[in-house]
From TrEMBL:
The keyword Heme does not apply. Keywords: Signal. The keyword Heme does not apply. It comes from the Bacteria. This is 6-bladed beta-propeller protein. The lineage of its organism: Bacteria, Pseudomonadati, Balneolota, Balneolia, Balneolales. It holds the Pfam family DUF5128. Residues 1-20 form the signal peptide. SUPFAM superfamilies: YVTN repeat-like/Quinoprotein amine dehydrogenase.
């Protein structure tokens, strides 16, 4: 059965960048026009496309799709034709069990395997450069900046939210942000939390508050931008969030009212 994945590339033109002088921001919902630039139907000339976990687009327009079902990365050209199958299923070096996140920077691909807790760097032609496996927790997002690998940690443990790894020495050098019970439970929801890097600064958002946290990746100084959302509230979680996530997640009910930005936990 032929499958078709429509990749929508969105183009947003920004006339200016406004830097806030105050650390107070009153949340407003503004409509932003997103213009469709191109639609690319992906072909299956080399391999049938299974479940797509993630994708990234290179500077030359090539598309790299993470295929969870086949545990591979499929390289497509700008016309949607498969050009190369990268990797294979396995537990050996540069093999994957559940490739889940992919990004590219400076023409290098960075891949996260959520089953083996492995971070892999490869060229766009499929040549393996580096693989790290010194990770103790699952991650919701991962970024590469200069010699650093930065993870947004998830799971039920009370470890840090952000971990910074030194690629040169292949070790952890910084743990940032403590998880609360409320944050741990809210990370069960898709779309909770956020991570990005701009101009040498790391920005992240916790799941249990609406504020924006900033880390200077030069000296690791930290700052917080307070975002005021009048209807945002978080109920206090009683008991161990780790136990709930690890043993009782299916029997608990989490309701999230998107319009009010509120949530409640009821065991």
């Amino acid at each position: 059965m032929r499958k078709l994945l429509l990749i929508i590339l969105l183009y947003l033109f920004c006339n200016s960048l406004v830097v806030a002088q105050s650390h107070q921001y009153k949340g407003e919902q503004n409509k932003v026009a997103l213009h469709l630039k191109k639609t690319i139907p992906l072909q299956e000339n080399l391999q049938l496309l299974g479940k797509v976990n993630d994708f990234t687009v290179g500077s030359d327009g090539d598309i790299f799709v993470v295929d969870k079902q086949n545990a591979t990365i499929i390289k497509y050209n700008t016309k949607g034709i498969q050009e190369q199958i990268i990797g294979k299923r396995g537990r050996g070096p540069f093999e994957y069990l559940n490739p889940s996140l992919i990004s590219n920077r400076d023409d290098t691909l960075y891949l996260w395997d959520s089953k083996q807790l492995r971070f892999t760097a490869i060229t766009k032609s499929g040549k393996h450069l580096l693989q790290l496996s010194d990770f103790s927790t699952a991650v919701a997002d991962i970024r590469k900046y200069q010699n650093y690998v930065i993870t947004y940690n998830t799971g039920g443990g009370h470890d840090s939210i952000i971990t910074v790894y030194d690629l040169k020495n292949q070790k952890k050098i910084k743990e940032i942000g403590a998880k609360t019970n409320e944050h741990i439970l809210l990370m069960v929801l898709k779309g909770s939390g956020a991570l990005d890097i701009q101009n040498g600064e790391l920005f992240y958002a916790r799941a249990d508050d609406p504020n924006l946290h900033k880390i200077n990746l030069g000296d690791f100084s930290q700052d917080t931008y307070s975002v005021t959302i009048p209807d945002f509230s978080v109920d206090k979680v009683q008991g161990s969030a780790r136990q709930i996530v690890n043993t009782d997640k299916k029997s608990c009910l989490i309701t999230f009212r998107k319009t009010a930005g509120q949530w409640k936990y009821m065991p």
